[in-house]
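Posting this for the archive.
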Amino acid sequence: MTKRETSGQITELERGRRYSIRVRLAPDETHKSWHWSKSRKVNGNKAEATAALVAYKKELEEEKSGRNVTVDEYAEAFQANRKALGKVSALTIERDQHEIDRIVKYLGTVRVVDLDSKQIESAYLRMSEDDGASPDAIHKIHMKLSQIMRKAYLDELIDRNPCDAVEGIRRPKVSQQKRRETRITKEQALTFVHKIRQEPQDGRIVAVWLGIATGLRRGEALALVWEDVDFENARLRIRKQYGKEKVLKDPKTAKSRRTISIDSQTVDYLRDWRTRQQTIFAEAGAEQRANSPVCSNELCGFLDPDNFSRWRRKFFVKEGLAHYANETVYTDKRGIERVKHSGYVGPNFHALRRAQATLLVAGGVDPKTVQARLGHESLNTTLNIYAEEVGENDRKAADFMGELLRD
């Protein structure tokens, strides 16, 4: 016997013991008229079948409203939407995926509407204890989860962002000692340039020169090809970057795609290197072309970013910009005593970029020009460098006044 409800239907399959239920659904994008949901079997009496029909209807309503979507599903849709709109670079989406993967691992099965601050705090604790996530990593994850939940709030899926109730998640402050250890001062930068000039040219040395002389990011320097170098007008075109994936990709942001002027010394330095590289290529049986990498390796191809970074750390130590915290003496399989260094302490390649910015600031170049030259997406990034430099000059001004007022 079939009994028609206003919103559903209960069909008796086995008297008093087994029923079939289905829900009456309104027209939607798929169906132009009223239609039935899929049937479900219920084992039990009539009262239990009625309760099951009510629960089934609520489930379908929540599914239609999006209330059943999980953090995993919503985060995936969030990424797909940003990618489709093209408002952020492919590199940003790729980097965000690292944080999203951790969010999904610990919170993925939770419904977005059910997510609360206690669940989030518990997940962060487990990330720290089980995965060894650092405070900085937790901060990045929290910022990404908060961004995703804010979108859920704007979509009216939730009434408030649960991340707002999570306290104590702050970006760790860099100690003054570490700041000094990882920075290249104006004086060090100028000395470093003179030392580099004395080094025999190869692709790695040229990349370091470009870092200090033009402020290019590592990936931008490694992606540079000869057709990007305009010797006649003394300019560089930054169009691509070459990262750990070992493929040429679009720059970090829209403003990273830029054309910058280069000084006469850098023009001469690159001219000399192009001539030398041409000979190296010829000896290797290769031909130097317009799309040949400026910072080439021994096989006439693009430098491997990881190998370059390992070499760069050793080079910085050699030039007195950095040091190793640990030194281990051991004997290899052939009985030869060797020394292994670990615990690198010092600046990275990005410090060359910051040093270039600091030199520009010290030379009186205005913030907007520095922003355009370095390809900063936000002027605040540039202004932070200015604030630091102004702080140093302010101390010098105070000391100068002190000397004038001395009895």
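The chain has three domains: 2-65, 71-165, 180-351. Residues 2-65 form one domain.
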